[in-house]
Amino acid sequence: MIHKLVGLIIFAALVVFGLSAYLSPNDLGKCQGWGEGDCRKADAIVVVSGGDTNARTDEAIKLYKEGWAPLIVVSGAAADKTGPSNAKAMYQRAINSGVPEKAIVMDESSETTRQNATEVKKIVDSRKIEDVILVTSGYHMRRAQLEFSAQFNDVKIRSHPVASDKNWSSWWWLTRRGGWWLAMGELMRIGLFALGLSR
C-alpha cells in the first residue's frame, strides 16, 4: 500500500513538473544579464494581452528598462468593444512607467493568439526586426511560441513567460478551477494547433 502511495506521489510530481516545463519555456531563464546566445539583446520585446494583461505588460516594461531591447510591441484588441483596446491600455501603462512613447508600437486589432502573431509579423517586417523576446503568461507561453514561430520564418523568437500572475504561479497545480483548467485548456489548444485547426 505504501509503495503504491509513494509511486502515485512520484507520478503526480512528474506530471506537474513536466506540464510546468512544457507550458512555460523560458529562453532567458538562465541569463544573469546580457551575453551570448539566448542571453543577447533583442531588437524588440513583444507582449500579448489576455489573462493578467497588467502582469504581462509589467514584465515587458521590466525587460525594456533592463536594456534587453529598444522597442516594445504591445498586441491585443479590446475585450470590451466600448472601451480602448488592450494594446492602448498596455501602451498607457508603459508610458506611465516611464517608457518613451517612441519606444512603443501598438497592434490594436488582434483577438486571438494566431492574430497576435499575424499582426505583429507585419510590424516586425516593416521595421526589419530580426530578434524578439516574446512575453506572455506561463500557461500561455508554449502556444504563443508555436503560433509566432509559424509566422516568423526568419525572425528569432525567445520565450520569456511571466513568473507569476493572478492566474498562474509555480503552485498552479493546487488550484483545480484555475491552474488545472488553464493547463488542460492550453494542451487542447496546442493539440488543435498541431492539427492545423487553431484560430
Automatic annotation (TrEMBL):
What superkingdom does the record give?
Answer: Bacteria
InterPro entries, alphabetized:
Cell_Envelope_Assoc (IPR051599), DUF218 (IPR003848), Rossmann-like_a/b/a_fold (IPR014729)
Q: Which GO terms describe its biological process?
A: Gram-negative-bacterium-type cell wall biogenesis; peptidoglycan metabolic process
Q: Any coiled-coil ranges, and where?
A: none
Gene3D superfamilies referenced in this protein's UniProt entry, alphabetically = HUPs (3.40.50.620)
Q: Which residues form the DUF218 domain?
A: 43-161
Q: Which Pfam families match?
A: DUF218 (PF02698)
Any one Gene Ontology cellular component term annotated for this protein: plasma membrane
Tell me the PANTHER family matching this sequence: ENVELOPE BIOGENESIS FACTOR ELYC, INNER MEMBRANE PROTEIN, PROBABLE PERMEASE
What name is this protein filed under? YdcF family protein
Natural source organism = Candidatus Minimicrobia naudis
